[in-house]
Write a structure and sequence with these properties.
With about 90 residues, this protein is an all-alpha fold. The protein is built from two helices and no strands.
């Protein structure tokens, strides 16, 4: 057996490949109390806004056709109003 290397093809990659280590994983900083309060206020405002939109749709659908009279303004009443007030609360 001989210790000869096989001949290189012309234009073959003769450089060694360099493997770089993976960058360290970045860990997100802990949220501050002010951030958590802001997120909770945003969520409460979003839920209240969606409840207002759904209540308005409910009132318009339950109010009947405009031929029957003017649509009632304001919040819903009765059990329906109680449910929407509970969601907002």
């Amino acid at each position: 057996m001989s210790d000869r290397k096989p001949p290189q093809r012309p234009g073959a990659d003769t450089h060694r490949r360099v493997v770089l280590p993976a960058p360290p994983l970045s860990i997100a900083p802990e949220p501050h109390a002010a951030d958590l309060r802001g997120i909770s206020r945003l969520l409460v405002a979003a839920v209240a806004g969606v409840a207002d939109i759904v209540e308005d749709m409910h009132r318009n659908i339950a109010g009947g056709a405009p031929i029957l009279g003017a649509q009632p303004e304001g919040r819903t009443r009765g059990i329906t109003g109680l449910v929407y007030r509970s969601v907002r609360g």
